[in-house]
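We close this part of the discussion by returning to an individual protein. The encoding preserves chain order, so positions in sequence and tokens coincide. The sequence in question and its structure tokens are set out directly beneath this paragraph:

===
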Amino acid sequence: MTAELDMMKLYSARILALAADMPRTERLTAPTATAKRRAPLCGSTVTVDLVVRDGVIVDYGQDVKACALGQAAASVVGSAIVGLTPAQVVRGRNQMLAMLKQDGPVPDAPFDGLEVLTPAKEYKNRHASIMLAFDATLDALGETT
């Protein structure tokens, strides 16, 4: 397969649709915590605002400046994150990282939509961008404890 066909497979219609229809793209006016992460290799950034009450994420906003893969991951995370505990976010992040780096299974629900990024396993230079939404969220959650 040529490099061009590999890239076409990587940027599938499903990935592009997720990137184009990202939820929760408004920054919050009164977040409990905010964190920003940057992928050094590509320069992608994700800033996350969240509100946590009684150990549960009750509101979430994100500003995503990333490639389509990072946007698709942020789209799935943004769709699933409200109502979760920090432990559930950690589990989803760890499962996603294992899927990318160790050929692990697709993350469990509610992050199972990240299955669309399975082809990205072979593109190690994209992993940091894909992980930004999770990593920024965990940084913000660290501020709330």
